[in-house]
Every structure is written in C-alpha cells, then in structure tokens.
Amino acid sequence: MMEKVPQKIKSMRRKIEKMEQEAHILIEKAETQEELNNVRVKYLGRNGLLAQLLKLVPQLALKYRPQAGRLANTLKRKLGEALRGKYDLLRKKKEENELRIDITMPGILKELGSIHPVSRTMEEISRIFMNLGFKAVEGPEIETDYYNFTALNIPEGHPSRETFHTFYLDNGRLLRSQTSPVQVRVMEKERPPLRIVAPGRVFRPDATDASHSFMFHQVEGLAVDKDITFADLKGTLSVFVREMFGQEIRMRFRPHFFPFTEPSAEIDISCIICGGSGCRVCSFKGWLEILGAGMVDPNVFGAVKYDPEVWQGFAFGMGVERIAMLKYGITDIRLFFENDVRFLRQF
Ligand code: PHE
Fold first, then answer.
1. Are 274 and 250 in contact (CB under 8 A)?
2. For 192-247, how does the pLDDT look when each residue is reduced to its tens digit (9 = 90+)?
3. pLDDT tens-digit profile of 27-61?
4. Is residue 111 part of a domain?
5. How far is the CA of 332 from the centre of ligand 1 (A)?
6. Which residue is closest in CA terms to ligand 1's atom 7?
7. Are residues 20 and 74 in the same domain?
8. Residue 112 belongs to some domain of the structure
9. How confident is the model over 290-345, as pLDDT tens digits?
C-alpha cells in the first residue's frame, strides 16, 4: 500500500520543478554574461530562491527532510551546470565577435585631394623651363628694399617704383612685389653661366576684383652666359608658349619698359579662345598679354659684380594665375583663393 505523502513535501516538489523550468528559460534567454549572472544570483545566491526553499525544510516531518534536501541539491547541481554551459557559450560568442573580420564589407574610401590649379600651373611652367636646362630656385617672400628695388635698378624716388605698389612692414622690410629679387640673390651667390626659374608668391596692395588679388604668384626666369642675345630669349619663350598652350599658338613682342632689363618687351600670345579673330576674352584684340621680359640691364650686373662686357643675359617674369585662368577658362581670380572644394575638385 502506498504511503500517503503529506501536502507539504508535495508542494515543495512542485515548487522545485517549477523553479527549475523557470530558471532554464531565463538561462536560455540570457544574452550577456551580466544577464546570466543575474539569473545565478536570483536562484543560487545567498538570499536566492533556493536558499529560501531550504529554510522551509525544517518544517517538514523528519522522515521527509532528507528527500527534500536531495531535491534541493539536485536542483542546485543542475542549475549550476546549465549556468556554466551558457557562460562558456557567451564567452565564445564574445570572442568570436571581437575577432570577426567581414571581408564582404565595402572598404573605407580615403578622400583624395588634388593639386591646386595654381600649384599645378606653376609646376607646369617650371617643368618646361627645367627641360630646357633651367634650375628651379626659391627666394624669401619678405624682402629688403635693396633686393626688391635698388639692386634691380629702381633707385629711391624713381617713378617706376609706383608701378610695383608695395606692402611695407614695420621693421623696414617689405613683402616682395615681384619675383625679380631672386635674380639678384642667385647672381650674388653664384658665378655665371646660370639658368634659373624662381616660382613663388608676390604681394601688391591692389583692390580685389575679378582680375586682381593682393597676393598672387609669378615665375621668374634668368639666363646668364657669354653671347646670349635677344634671339635666345625669343627662342626660349617660343618653346615655352607652344609647350604651354599648343603648337599653333603665335607670339608677339611689344616694346615696353622695365628698369632691370634693356631692351624690354611685353609678350602676347594669339588668343587661345578665338585664335586671333577677336572675342570677349581678348577684348576683341586677338592677343593676350602673358609675360614681361628683356635683356638684363648692365646696372643689375653691376650690382652683383658681373662684368657686363663679358656676360649677357635675359630675364622674364609671368603671372601664374593669369596663365592658369587662360588655360582653364577661369574668369575670376578670386576662385583660386576661396577654398571652395566645388571649384578645386575640378582639377
Ligand atoms: N618683374 C616684372 C613684373 O612683375 C616682370 C619681369 C621680370 C619683367 C623679368 C622683365 C624681366 O612685372
């Protein structure tokens, strides 16, 4: 005959079964180690549900107590195992996530910059002359009156200083208004023969508009040797003009005045837009002025102690922005200096 089992141990057994089911569901659901630990504390912690259950054991009849203890211990062991298993699983998952490299993900595109159109044009100009045997050099942007003017045959009070309007600094120096002082600096240091180009910034206090900027760039050129003639200047510049603008371009020399060259000329090219028939870009003249040049004045040689009876030379200077504007069809010089990427991206 089956012994009648009292209510209390029955209800304890039911409680333990229910607790086991619930605990397994929670362990299953736990997605992080932290969540899992909360489940452990809830059931197996010092004040957890299992501990509370064990407190009820003394209320049972003596003969049922061992049975109740066994049930509770079994639950403790089972939950412990389930928790450990899940803990290992979560740890593995975490490690896998940390290691995972998804080779199907699109790469991270690095934004590429581009060379500024002024730099690009300046390099292109310099490169053409370097291919003709000229060496590229640089000079300071802050200059003295001597290098920017005096040594270039522009004495104090000379009216031609006015054409090179200048920013003066408090310390008596100035921002160079042309790259021509580099001619003097090179000749002071080196003995002829020499052929140099000097690209760089120059500054003039002009009001800013579509064709003027207080800062712009020039490329200076200088060749000194024995028996250099005006024909060498013409030949050199005609190679430059064709390389820069195309083989069909024509060139003309107009008499001009520069204090540091004699004779001097301004050089025009046939309009690269209309070919010479006249259009808005060339103001219906058919010609575009692109540079100044001439034979080095004997007074400049005198300032650097070259004997003008032995050495001759030619020099030229051109505005880089103007050439870039003509070449790329840019109508406003300010576009070069506003840093608008929509403009710069086109180069
Ligand atoms: N320095 C002159 C200018 O800025 C250009 C030039 C250079 C002319 C060399 C002749 C010789 O206008």
1. no
2. 999 999 999 999 998 999 989 999 999 999 999 999 999 999 999 999 999 999 99
3. 999 998 899 999 999 999 999 998 888 888 888 88
4. no
5. 23
6. 317
7. yes
8. no
9. 999 999 999 999 999 999 999 999 999 999 999 999 999 999 999 999 999 999 98
Domain that holds residue 75: 7-99
Burial category of 209 from C-beta neighbours within 10 Å (exposed 0-12, middle 13-18, buried 19 and up): exposed
Q: CA nearest 244: which of 309, 327, 310? A: 327
Within a domain: residue 183? yes
152/125 same-domain check: yes
Q: By the 8 A CB rule, do 226 and 310 touch?
A: yes
Ligand 1 pocket: which of 178, 202, 236 to mutate (most atoms <8 Å of CB)? 178
Which residues does ligand 1 sit against, CB inside 6 Å?
Answer: 178, 180, 220, 258, 261, 292-294, 315-317
**Nearest protein Cα to ligand 1, atom 6:** 317
- What is the number of the ligand 1 atom nearest to the C-alpha of 222? 9
Q: Last residue of some domain: 99, 127, 143? A: 99
192 and 337: one domain?
yes
